[in-house]
Amino acid sequence: MNEGAPVCEVCGREIGRAEAMMGARQGRLVCNAVDCRALVAQLARMPREARAPHLATHARLIRERRARHERNERHVALIRQAEALEDERILRAALRDRGTEGKVVALPLPSGLSEVVPVPAERRERY
């Protein structure tokens, strides 16, 4: 984060200059995220004494949901990275076993059904 940069009052993320200018006119610094904007819209329709606890509770929930999402994204990225390394090892082993390491070789890659299903005669006749 940039030192002194404006942050969203709901989620705590750094916001851009345009968002900060819009927020200054509306009285709150809020990012363009839908959940943050919706929470601020709710606050405008609530009694004054209920705003602070509502904002605190829902801001915490939004931050937790985003943290879970980011953890999940990192987890998925690690899995994809591990799969890519495994695919590379398998490819190198296949090339080494065929004696074609370092050469350009076309390898059949399985995709779709493993066998062709014959088309019924009735369907062929209709065609």
Ordered list of secondary-structure elements with their pairings:
Blueprint: H1 17-26, H2 34-44, H3 48-98, H4 121-126
Helix pairs in contact: 2-3
If you had to describe this structure to a student in words, what would you say it looks like?
This protein has 127 residues and is mainly α. The chain is built from four helices and no strands.
Our estimate of the beta-strand percent is: under 5%
Which secondary-structure class do the elements indicate?
mainly alpha
The strand count comes to: 0
- As residue ranges, the low-confidence spans are none
What is the alpha-carbon Rg in Å?
Answer: 28 Å
What letter string, H or E per element, gives the SSE order? HHHH
- Largest sheet data: none
Distance between the termini: 64 Å
Query: Averaging pLDDT over every residue, what do you get?
Result: 84
Describe the structure concisely for a colleague.
The chain is mainly alpha-helical and 127 residues long.
Main attributes of the structure:
mainly alpha; 61% helix; 4 helices; 127 residues
